[in-house]
């Protein structure tokens, strides 16, 4: 009998058999010792992202020759983004014997802004506890300190809050032990003639590598958990690079292990202790369970998993159909929520309609393999939804799909209708051409939606335009200093944050890792 777990208004039905399969697929983490490269300071620079840039002072090897007292600090640059543990902080007293504890503060940052601006200035709506710092006392010197918490960082700032007047301290060695479940030996080198495309591939792979832990995390700094929308894109990038099929399978079974009593799959799960389903349900993310399942089958040919998880995948469509009105349109109402993109102005009706059509086409392909009794029913539903979309959501005069009672024209609506192949290829191509010319005000705010724009362009044969869009977006991110790709990036507003402060943004984020997939899958 399934165990029952209640979270707020949702009853979670635990499928212990599925959870056991996921547990058996838990990967071994690969660990690497990494040492800092430079001592730096961070200086104000209006031309840099967030107004701060790192300035190299000297090699990190010089640290052991320095001593520090109350009020002193230094910043280490490890040269690239890391996810792991400060395993060895070797500290020794200098001068008289230490007659009082050493009081330290260590701050971790993915970006220079986190080294420059005090965390106390943060006033965003996401918890400040995501800002990475540790304050502690060292009672015994000399000594080797290990921090138990895992961090995501490139920069480390160490401040001496207090020590006695009789002694100072030196830091002989500060070692990071990185962790990942991604095996870089599995990757086929790209060796692209275009240097920027080559760099995009490398940064994408590094982003994915740092997000691949015991699950495909969305961001190793924040939120450090498994989100279904991120998983879908990470899995695609993984198939072209690390080829860790078992990790994708594990994640599918984790989601399948904790649906609610309506059969809906949660948007994300917590996995650090017991498996816990979050009480957040996103219509588009639930639907993407079927596409993630099919993508996994396409590369693995794991028919057993496809067959076993198909009923739950099909259930996501039955739930989605319940949100359709009498015209077979997703209701423009507050009875459901989709993510689509981080844009507060975006009406989600039309893009969600597009997601539903896109995923329904894939569901039919699965049904033809494992569930033939549902094929005709799904095809009939698809025909009704597509025809209604053309009739009610296409504005011939505007030349765009509209969304909601205010007939909003957005980038997201056009992108998803093209991916859903509502129109024939030539008309889809014309639609994207018009989109790039007109540039509707309700635009793109995340690499997540930008990925779908690029893939839509490739779908209609506009490969060169797609490459140019990638260079203008991810390429520009690299020019702004990205060694892993960021959660959020607006080239016209580089400090954009939906959370109230860019310090809390994730600068190594799962949904940003897809250039390597696009480059390798489509031979760009």
- The poorly predicted ranges are 1-7
List the helices and strands in order.
Answer: EEHEEEEEHEEEEHEHHEEHHHHEEHHHHH
**Quick check: average pLDDT?**
96
- Indicate the structural class: alpha+beta
Pick out its properties:
16 strands; 524 residues; disordered N terminus; 37% helix; three-stranded antiparallel β-sheet
Can you tell me about this structure?
With 524 residues, this protein is an alpha+beta fold. 37% of the residues lie in helices and 20% in strands. The chain has helices at 16-24, 113-116, 195-211, 228-240, 245-256, 283-300, 303-321, 349-370, 375-392, 411-419, 425-438, 447-459, 463-479, 515-521, and strands at residues 4-7, 10-13, 30-34, 38-44, 52-59, 73-95, 102-109, 133-138, 143-145, 151-162, 167-180, 226-227, 268-270, 276-277, 394-395, 400-401. Strands 3, 4, 5, 6, 7, 8, 9, 10 and 11 form a 9-stranded antiparallel beta sheet that branches. Helix 6 runs antiparallel to helix 7 (303-321). The radius of gyration is 25 Å and the shape is globular. The termini are far apart. Mean pLDDT is 96; it is low at 1-7.
């Amino acid at each position: 009998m399934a165990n029952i777990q209640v979270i707020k208004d949702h009853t979670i039905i635990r499928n212990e058999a599925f959870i056991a399969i996921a547990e058996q697929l838990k990967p071994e983490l690969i660990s690497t010792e990494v040492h800092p490269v430079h001592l730096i300071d961070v200086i104000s620079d209006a031309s840099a992202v967030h107004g701060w840039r790192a300035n190299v002072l000297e090699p990190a090897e010089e640290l052991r020759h320095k001593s520090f007292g109350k009020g002193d600090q230094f910043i280490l640059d490890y040269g690239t983004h890391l996810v792991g543990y400060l395993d060895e902080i070797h500290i020794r007293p200098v001068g008289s014997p230490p007659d009082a504890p050493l009081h330290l503060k260590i701050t971790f940052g993915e970006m220079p802004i986190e080294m420059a601006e005090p965390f106390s200035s943060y006033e965003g709506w996401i918890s400040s506890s995501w800002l990475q710092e540790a304050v502690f006392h060292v009672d015994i010197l000399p000594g080797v300190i290990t921090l138990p918490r895992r961090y995501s960082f490139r920069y480390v700032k160490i401040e001496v809050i207090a020590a006695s007047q009789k002694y100072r301290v030196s830091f002989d060695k500060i070692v990071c032990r990185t962790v990942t479940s991604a095996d870089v030996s599995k990757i086929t080198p790209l060796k692209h003639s275009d240097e920027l495309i080559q760099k995009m591939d490398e940064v994408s792979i590094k982003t994915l590598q740092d997000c691949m832990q015991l699950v495909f995390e969305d961001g190793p700094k924040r939120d450090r958990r498994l989100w279904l929308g991120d998983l879908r894109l990470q899995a695609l990038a993984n198939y072209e690079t690390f080829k860790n099929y078992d990790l994708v399978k594990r994640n599918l079974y984790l989601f399948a292990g904790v649906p609610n009593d309506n059969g809906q799959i949660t948007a994300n799960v917590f996995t650090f202790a017991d498996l816990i389903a979050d009480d957040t349900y996103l219509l588009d993310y639930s639907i993407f369970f079927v596409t993630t399942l099919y993508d996994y089958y396409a590369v693995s040919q794991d028919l057993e998993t496809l067959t076993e998880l198909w009923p739950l995948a099909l259930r996501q469509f039955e739930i989605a159909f319940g949100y359709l009105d009498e015209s077979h349109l997703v209701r423009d109402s507050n009875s459901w929520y989709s993510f689509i993109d981080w844009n507060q102005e975006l009406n989600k009706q039309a893009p969600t309609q597009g997601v539903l059509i896109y995923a329904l086409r894939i569901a039919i392909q699965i049904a033809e393999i494992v569930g033939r009794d549902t094929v005709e029913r799904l095809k009939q539903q698809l025909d009704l939804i597509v025809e209604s979309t053309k009739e009610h959501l296409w504005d011939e005069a505007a030349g765009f799909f509209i969304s909601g009672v205010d007939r909003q024209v957005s980038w997201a609506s056009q992108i998803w209708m093209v991916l859903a192949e509502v129109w024939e290829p030539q008309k889809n191509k014309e639609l994207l051409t018009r989109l790039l010319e007109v540039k509707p005000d309700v635009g793109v705010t995340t690499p997540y939606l930008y990925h779908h724009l690029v893939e839509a362009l490739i779908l209609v044969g506009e490969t060169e335009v797609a490459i140019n869009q990638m260079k203008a977006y991810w390429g520009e991110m690299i020019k702004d200093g990205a060694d892993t790709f960021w959660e959020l990036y607006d080239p016209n507003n580089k400090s954009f944050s939906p959370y109230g402060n860019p310090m809390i943004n994730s600068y190594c984020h799962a949904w940003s890792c897809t250039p390597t997939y696009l480059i390798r899958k489509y031979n760009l």
